[in-house]
Write a structure and sequence with these properties.
Rossmann fold; single chain; 15 helices; 2 domains; 6-stranded parallel beta sheet
């Protein structure tokens, strides 16, 4: 098989974000502070996808969501060249938008957008998603018209993300061997669906209460000036590493004792299993998860005893979790054993192999039902 990637340049107040170097570039997508304006503009700009479809003339077209803007153009292209059309849903973008915009002009635009996109989803030859909850959402919203919904799980590349010796990892970053290190890898912004501030407050309280050396290591892009100020206010317990290359992320996670996923409480995100979960597990990190008990992430962590779960806004639970793990290296060791046992199930190749088999099945099927 030969694959071609087409992805947009993104223009926002933070500058230009380019797609992976292996991808052909679409014209700019515009990212403003208004998702409705973004939706209208980018839905129009995504029509350039049709040009690439006509140039490359693929046998199979896969549109990966949350970027559902090119769905319409890609679908029309599949009809013109009689290609198999697949939708791969990684975030239910339409449901997130409709949850935010329920009335007024924004709600009207989102309803039209959802109608168009879901009509196309129903016509896709196969519909993939990354979690069980997304599969339920799609089945409920699309209804009996959906021919196929398959769960193709995300994961980590276990050939790259693997634990290395903790002393060696700490030595590479010049970190003390006796400090308890908490890891957070991800975006830093006041509007993101991760809220790191309660974690910072809890770590500071535990440090002062127990008089122990505990710090949080943070790596990722900082998107807001307000969060830069937060970093400055917590310099006593926070070390900001900036944006790291993948190999340095592996070293940093291997150097830490605990990984943290500080999800916000909005139930719309109960479907999500973030990439950082897979990367923490792949490097053998026990996890403190802040998420609703009803979420898929909470269920996986509790069922497999990968760490400690706290509900959002339960600050006492969060402080207790940090305190318990900081003072009990044996418990960290027990969770680490469970994490390493579970590690084989989050191999990204599992999903890749499942996807490959389904694509081969499509290519071997001469019947094309548009």
């Amino acid at each position: 098989m030969k694959s071609v990637c087409v992805a947009p340049l993104q223009l926002s107040k933070h500058g230009i974000t380019e797609p992976h170097e292996m991808c052909y570039k679409l014209p700019f997508y515009i990212l403003t502070r208004n998702p409705i304006i973004d939706l209208i503009l980018n839905f129009i700009l995504s029509s350039f996808v049709l040009l690439y479809v006509l140039i490359f003339h693929p046998k199979i077209i896969v549109v990966s969501i949350p970027d559902s803007y090119p769905v319409l153009a890609a679908y029309f292209g599949s009809l013109l060249i009689r290609a198999r059309f697949i939708v791969d849903v990684r975030d239910p973008q339409e449901e997130i938008l409709s949850n935010k915009y329920r009335r007024g002009f924004g709600g009207f635009i989102v309803k039209i957008y959802k109608y168009i996109v879901y009509r196309i989803y129903r016509k896709s030859m196969k519909l993939f998603c990354v979690t069980r909850m997304i599969a339920h959402i799609l089945a409920n919203k699309i209804g009996a018209g959906a021919k196929y919904i398959y769960i193709i799980p995300n994961g980590a590349d276990l050939r790259i993300f693997k634990p290395i010796d903790k002393n060696e990892a700490r030595g590479r970053f010049g970190l003390s061997q006796d400090v308890v290190l908490v890891a957070y890898i991800g975006p830093l912004a006041s509007w993101a669906y991760y809220n790191l501030v309660p974690v910072l407050l809890a770590i500071r309280k535990v440090r002062e209460k127990l008089n122990i050396n505990i710090k949080i290591m943070v790596a990722g892009r900082c998107y807001s000036e307000s969060f830069k100020k937060i970093i400055g206010r917590f310099k006593d317990i926070l070390e900001y590493m900036g944006e790291l290359e993948t190999k340095d992320v592996v070293i940093l996670l291997s150097a830490c004792d605990i990984g943290i996923i500080p999800r916000i409480e909005d139930p719309i995100y109960d479907y999500a299993i973030p990439v950082k979960f897979y990367e923490y597990v792949a490097t053998g990190l026990p996890i403190i998860v802040i998420a609703r008990k009803q979420s898929e992430l909470a269920e996986i962590v509790e069922k497999n005893k990968l760490g400690i779960l706290c509900e959002p806004q339960d600050h006492i639970c969060l402080e207790k979790a940090i305190e318990t793990l900081a003072m009990n290296k044996g418990l960290i060791g027990e969770f680490r054993k469970n994490v390493l046992t579970f590690r084989k199930y989050i191999d990204r190749r599992i999903g890749a192999e499942r996807l490959f088999k389904l694509i081969v099945e499509l290519m071997q099927n001469d019947r094309f039902d548009a």
